[in-house]
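Researcher: I'd like a structural prediction for the single chain below. Treat it as a standalone chain; there are no partners to consider.
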Amino acid sequence: MNVQIKTKASRPMCASGALQKIYANVSNVDEVVTDRFLCSGEDMSLEAHTCKGESGGSLFVERRQRHFQVGVISWGTYDPCARHNKNDDGEVIRDRPSKESKPRDFYISLFQVQDWLRKYLDNSLTFIPMQ
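Model: Treating it as a single chain, here is the predicted structure.
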């Protein structure tokens, strides 16, 4: 899956997408999208959105022909697999979101929870610099 993480000036608009549907009664986006989340969204490609049940999946970035895990999918505002359509091979067909839906996916940033990971998993993890 090829996603674009919204950073800097584009992050607040991406995060505000969380106030659609499932969090429509929340007035402050910071209540549901903390600094621990990475945000992606508004990409209309079929592969850019995660399905319900894919929570816990890894988000990687590629730098200098190396892949680094930077996040873990937590939740999204659109489920492209909700209709459970399958192709002839039994693979789930992802539905393309409408332009009005402005879907978002939210990932836990491993950079934001690194202290916790080190505290509880230090003996089983190796951290490599992303340079």
